[in-house]
Task: inverse folding
């Protein structure tokens, strides 16, 4: 198991993964500070 | 979220196994405008077509984030007419996180999913009875109030 969350940072790439794996997307809008 | 919730082992496992995690800076355009982002953290559940089904704003502890994500998955499946998958997410939420802030809405939505699956109104009344017993002050108990008459 991963020891951290492997965040995607590109919307199109994340959506392609979502379709390929048939999983919903968790989209986190964050403040990088 | 970075200090407490995202490093949590259960959170890492849940997100890795069940979702595609995507992080975008709050001011990144055009997405910030497209999603009307005004405060962070804003956590949004999207389906595979990019449609939004669930949103929370503000910090969530690990024991609240996972049920909130399960609720988001349940709503995503419900709103795309996949009631069996919706019920799977909602049952898991209610079994593992019955005291979470997401539980009342999950109880309500489970009743609606069961009704939509069977066209039997009994699950709606059961949802009200369960809400009234476990969460009498919840807004979801108020929303289910008419179902007591079914």
Result:
């Amino acid at each position: 198991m991963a020891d951290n969350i492997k965040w995607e940072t590109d919307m199109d790439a994340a959506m392609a993964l979502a379709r390929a794996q048939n999983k919903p997307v968790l989209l986190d809008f964050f403040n990088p500070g | 979220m970075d200090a407490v919730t995202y490093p949590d082992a259960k959170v890492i496992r849940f997100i890795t196994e069940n979702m595609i995690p995507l992080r975008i800076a709050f001011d990144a355009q055009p997405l910030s405008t497209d999603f009307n982002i005004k405060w962070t953290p804003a956590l949004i559940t999207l389906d595979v077509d990019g449609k939004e089904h669930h949103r929370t704003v503000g910090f969530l502890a690990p024991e609240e984030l996972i049920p909130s994500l399960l609720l988001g998955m349940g709503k995503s499946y419900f709103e795309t007419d996949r009631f069996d998958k919706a019920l799977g997410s909602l049952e898991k939420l209610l079994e593992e996180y019955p005291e979470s802030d997401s539980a009342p809405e999950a109880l309500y939505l489970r009743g609606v999913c069961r009704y939509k699956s069977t066209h039997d109104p009994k699950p709606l009344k059961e949802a009200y009875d369960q809400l009234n017993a476990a969460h009498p002050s919840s807004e979801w108990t108020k929303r289910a109030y008419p179902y007591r008459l079914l």
